[in-house]
Amino acid sequence: MKIIRTLARFLVLAGIAVGIVMIMGKNRNSFTGEGYIGESDIVIENGQMTPEALLALGRLSDPQLSPDGEYILYGVSYTSIKDNRSCRNLFICRKDGSERQQITKSGKSISNARWINGGKGLAFIMGGQIWTANIRTGKEGWKVTGLTQVSDIPAGISEFKLSPDQSRLIYASYVKSDVKTPADCYEDLGKANAYTTDDLMYRHWDHTVMEIPHSFIADFSPKAAVSVTPETSIDILAGEPANYELPTEPFSGIEQLDWSPDGKFIAYSCRKVTGKKYAFSTNTEIYIYNVENGKCSKISTAGGYDTDPVWSPDGSKICWVSMERDGYEADKQRLMISDLNWSELDENGCPKASEPVDATADFKYNVTGPVWDENCKEIYFASLAEGLQGIFKAEYADEVWQITRLTDEDRWNDFGSPFHIAKTDEGGLEMLTTWCSMDFPTELAAVVVSPEGVEYKPVTTENEHILSQIAEHNTEARYVKTVDGKDMLTWVLYPPQFDPAKKYPSILICLGGPQGTLSQGWSYRWNYRLMAAQGYVVVLPNRRGTTAFGQEWTEQISGDYPGLNMQDYLCAAREIKAEPYIDKIAACGASYGGYSVYNLCGTHENTFDAFIAHAGIFNQEHMYMTTEEMWFPNFDNGGLHECEIDPRVGTDEAPVGPAGDGVTFGGIKQGGSPWSDLPKAKRHYAMSPHKNVTKWNTPLMVIHGAMDYRVPVDQGMAAYNAAQMMGVPSRLLIFPEENHWILKPQNALMWHREYFRWLDTWCK
């Protein structure tokens, strides 16, 4: 239940829907201001942060350094509560943050903007199509002219990536799936509304799989109007099963494809399985695709996710992020590297790859966003380590890869992977990156590493005009003893003007995931600064299952949902309740955090005074048979530790029905199923929250999106009905058009108002 890219994906798809209607011509000299949403001029009263203030904050993303290394191009999305939508436009500033200027004022969101023509032009997506424009600077600043639409793809384009010489591009679009509509089956039923399938994987998170993402290659010319069409495009997956995805659903993007330095090859990540095995597998592989002949070769060998391939600048190596085990989304994310032998090509005309080397074998944390240095001996990446996301370097020296942390381990910021790396004259290092904290959302920053230490320089402060109006608060990092004597990092946020002589209500946050981390990340839903601003002491325990403390701590949750991690929550709650300034306390959480709330409802022994569960798992048996990604409950209910994917799958020996062993169906081992005899699975189902409702007696609010397919809405409705039948004070909030997350601005505001209304009723 990881939250990765969903908001971005929503905004892209919304742009396709709105933009296609609004674009009236192929060439324009300017952007249209109709529907434009700009920076908010909200005034904060009494310094108190509000949900309205949270939604007013601009959301910065996708920074791109200019070819001359002097300017940064980036996007900022602003929200209109009145119009119930957001809109993203482009900005430019110098590398040090000076000379900031907004360069577009479009009523249609602009995304995926890239410098072209040596910095004299831009390419970007607007209204689901690729556009280009000229850009120049003068005495009056930057001007964008010569707007030209270069693509006309009926299914729309979500993302693109230019080749190194910018003569070609890869773009992501959609092809029809095997799911059939009435028109596919019966010509005379044109007004019928239904779909039919013979496959298991027919939903993803919030949508029926009527279309499959594919990636295409096309020639690119900035001034050639409507030159990228279906007729001029090549499907990278041509000749392979139509249901293969590239990029892989539901959250992958164009970062899963990378051009070789010479533009003749593409490395990509793809899960090349279909049917039932697809629903039970996380096994994506890394492939090298020969652009000239359309053939590809697999180079990765792990059983789980292999993602984020990146060529070294000289083309001699390729690195990627890898998980070892199939069917497990929270395995350790390793940095794998293969050498490429260009003197010996394989039968597909692709370079032969050496056996992958794990550069992080002695590194206990996860790798994200690897970036090569120009010398091809250093790789930079971000990693959550001990509750904070820092920047690290993997360096090849003395025939081994060595890992060094570059940002200070006690710096209370979460950093992204650097998008620019340069050596200084003094032998140091200057990196451009993103950073955020519980105090402010994502901004651009420079990190300068020298023998004297590390210097941090803000580059942008897009939201200073709002944040400067909000009263400050204090955050504490405390370590809570668990029942087995371990130290658990627990963040505690105090209300502005906190006075320990007074009494305050408290909110304990139950983390989703189930694997994730409560770090210094900023959230537009579960925003802890906002909660503290409403007068609550906010408690954030990094219970076992969180991913920033090594794989052993992460894996203690799998196969043990009702066990030690629930005790972790109770330890943190009881420690904070022992403080003389704490009055009542509520437990709130989403996704697995919602499961945690439902579990605690029946086991907390009067520790909590109120609960809120958003998109939570209530009935684990029902969840197993209705969620759309079967591998998830299969592993976490205790299955794949002891029962791997049946090797007969895809062969003539694969069974087509129950095999008589109690765990096999359709060739897939279902060790985490309700009918499994494995001890961990049996314990999970025996202790499912729905079996403890007779012990419920604490006020409970249930929130759910009706379009949530990962944790179907029936889970929330069943929990609410159970609370009602047990006579427990309860409230139900359903969003008919939302999914696992609440994305529309007015729905988000409704969410926040109801959230605090419930807490204020029972805790103040």
Could you describe the 3D structure shown?
With 764 residues, this protein is an alpha+beta fold. It folds into 5 domains: 1-149, no CATH class; 197-358, no CATH class; 371-468; 471-618 and 691-763, 3-Layer(aba) Sandwich (Rossmann fold); 630-687, no CATH class. Helices cover 16% and strands 33% of the residues. It has 14 helices and 43 strands. The strands form 10 sheets. An 8-stranded mixed sheet has the order 34-35-37-36-38-39-42-43, with helices on both faces. The chain has a 5-stranded antiparallel sheet with strand order 1-9-8-7-6. β31 (429-436) and β32 form a beta hairpin. It is globular, with a radius of gyration of 26 Å.
Key words describing this protein structure:
disordered N terminus, 764 residues, 8-stranded mixed β-sheet, alpha+beta, 5 domains, 5-stranded antiparallel β-sheet, globular
Class by alpha and beta content: alpha+beta
How can the largest sheet be summarized?
Answer: 8 strands, mixed
Provide a count of the helices. Answer: 14
Average pLDDT number = 91
In brief, what are we looking at here?
This protein has 764 residues and is an alpha+beta fold.
Layout of secondary structure:
Blueprint: H1 6-22, E1 27-28, H2 51-56, E2 59-65, E3 71-80, E4 85-94, E5 101-102, E6 110-116, E7 121-126, E8 129-138, E9 141-149, E10 159-162, E11 168-176, H3 182-185, E12 203-204, E13 207-208, E14 211-219, E15 233-235, E16 257-259, E17 265-270, H4 275-280, E18 285-290, E19 296-298, E20 306-311, E21 317-322, E22 334-345, E23 351-353, E24 357-358, E25 368-372, E26 378-385, E27 388-397, E28 400-405, E29 414-415, E30 420-423, E31 429-436, E32 443-450, E33 453-458, H5 464-467, E34 474-481, E35 487-494, E36 504-510, H6 528-533, E37 537-541, H7 551-555, H8 564-577, E38 582-590, H9 592-601, E39 610-614, H10 620-626, H11 631-636, E40 664-665, E41 668-669, H12 679-686, E42 700-705, H13 713-725, E43 730-735, H14 745-763
